[in-house]
User: Which sequence fits this backbone?
């Protein structure tokens, strides 16, 4: 039984006759840091969002922890989503809540409706939230409102919230695209460190090729809805980058 992530002939069309994903097949091993690169509109975000079913695939299979996700009903899908942490480009924090409340919300999927409504968290969850805030460099920020934070700080909260789920897989959808170069490096380092600490795979959809080469152990290059490169960062030649992005002008 394959307990990692296995994607088989995944296809997605938002409009008839206009496929965004054209038969993607991938196997992800444990502890990999996989960066998905490619031009805008080539299906990177769609692929990430199909994995946790924020987008419903048109056809194909996604196997994770021995379960096929595409056909899952609402309740088993909700249970499976607990094991898939998600870090968003736009952070998706609750602006009026504190940093601590945002991080603790990563536990809501495990709580009864009554406990969730009352925000009645267990002490071990609160202890873990403090530990995670320390690991992402936000000790002392517990009581600050999310809307008072910088972009880099918000993304750190988003990572801590995703890890609060005790995920078996971490997905990140353009986690650095709104950040300056220095902060982007810091956020990528935190993501990679979390993956090592938790011993789980991370899949990151990103635009920055240099950042992807620096932090990923494997790079998947997509162009027009298909995988055109799958291999080591060191194997990304100019020729392959041209096949991913098209043309040469952007390389200079």
Assistant:
């Amino acid at each position: 039984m394959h307990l990692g992530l296995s994607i088989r002939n995944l296809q997605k069309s938002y409009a008839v006759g206009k496929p965004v994903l054209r038969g993607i097949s991938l196997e992800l091993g444990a502890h990999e840091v996989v960066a998905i690169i490619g031009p805008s509109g080539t299906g990177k975000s769609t692929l990430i969002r199909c994995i946790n079913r924020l987008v419903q695939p048109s056809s194909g299979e996604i196997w994770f922890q021995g379960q096929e996700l595409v056909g899952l009903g609402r309740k088993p899908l909700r249970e499976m989503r607990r094991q898939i942490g998600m870090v968003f480009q736009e952070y998706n924090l609750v602006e009026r809540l504190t940093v601590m409340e945002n991080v603790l919300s990563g536990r809501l999927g495990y709580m009864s409706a009554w406990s969730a409504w009352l925000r009645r968290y267990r002490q071990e969850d609160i202890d873990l939230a403090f530990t995670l805030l320390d690991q992402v460099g936000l000790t002392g920020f517990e009581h600050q409102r999310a809307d008072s934070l910088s972009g880099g700080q918000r993304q750190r909260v988003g990572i801590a919230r995703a890890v609060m789920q005790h995920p078996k897989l971490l997905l990140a959808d353009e986690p650095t695209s709104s950040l300056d170069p220095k902060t982007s490096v810091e956020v990528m380092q935190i993501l990679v460190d979390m993956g090592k600490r938790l011993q789980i795979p991370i899949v990151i959809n990103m635009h920055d090729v240099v950042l992807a080469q620096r932090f990923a152990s494997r790079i998947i290059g997509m162009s027009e809805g298909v995988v055109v490169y799958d291999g080591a960062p060191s194997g990304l030649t100019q020729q392959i980058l041209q096949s991913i992005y098209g043309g040469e002008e952007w390389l200079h």
Observations:
- Residues 181-198 form the longest helix (18 residues).
